[in-house]
Design goal:
single chain, 173 residues, Immunoglobulin-like, 2 domains, 11 strands, elongated
Length: 173
């Protein structure tokens, strides 16, 4: 009983101290801020070389981002036809390489995937336009065959839809 009464007293004491700090402490902090001279800021001069260096580094990073998102895209690879079947070898390592493939519409396509990346996201390839999916074992080739009947763009992606590729089917020229 004595121990319970001590716990209640300490709880009430802590509550009173917290309330006092919240209410009284706020007024004290406000008083300190109002007394401080905040109308002027002290200017800190920086050397010209530092200013130029920071500006150059910023411009370089902007240029790197533009290159990465606009100009570093892989060129499309055209599938090679053999015995009436178009075939493409795709390496799965942090994405798909190539991730843009050009094929002829109306001809069967064989996609040969070699997965080198152990991440679970890339364990499966999904081709939603063809209602097909394929599990990709690590360091082994896995093959899937599809038939793009009409010209157009068909996508393929990993199981989490984070990595994507495009299969472009074109009409015979």
């Amino acid at each position: 009983m004595k121990r319970q009464s001590l716990n209640v007293k300490s709880l009430l004491g802590g509550l009173l101290i917290s309330t006092n700090l919240l209410l009284g402490g706020a007024h004290t902090a406000k008083a300190q801020i109002s007394q401080a001279d905040t109308s002027e800021f002290r200017r800190i001069e920086q050397p010209l070389g530092l200013k130029v260096g920071v500006a150059a580094a910023g411009a370089g990073l902007i240029g790197l981002e533009l290159w990465w998102f606009l100009f570093s895209k892989n060129k499309a690879q055209t599938a090679q036809a053999s015995d009436g079947v178009q075939s493409v070898d795709i390496t799965v390592d942090g994405g798909y390489s190539p991730d843009q493939i050009v094929v002829q519409a109306g001809q069967p396509v064989r996609l040969n995937f070699l997965r080198k990346d152990p991440s679970s996201c890339l364990e499966q390839i999904i081709l939603p336009d063809f209602n097909k999916s394929l599990d990709l074992p690590l360091n082994q080739e896995a093959t899937i065959e599809i038939l793009p009947e009409a010209a157009g763009n068909y996508t393929f992606h990993c199981g989490m839809n984070m990595f994507r590729g495009t299969l472009t089917a074109k009409e015979d020229s």
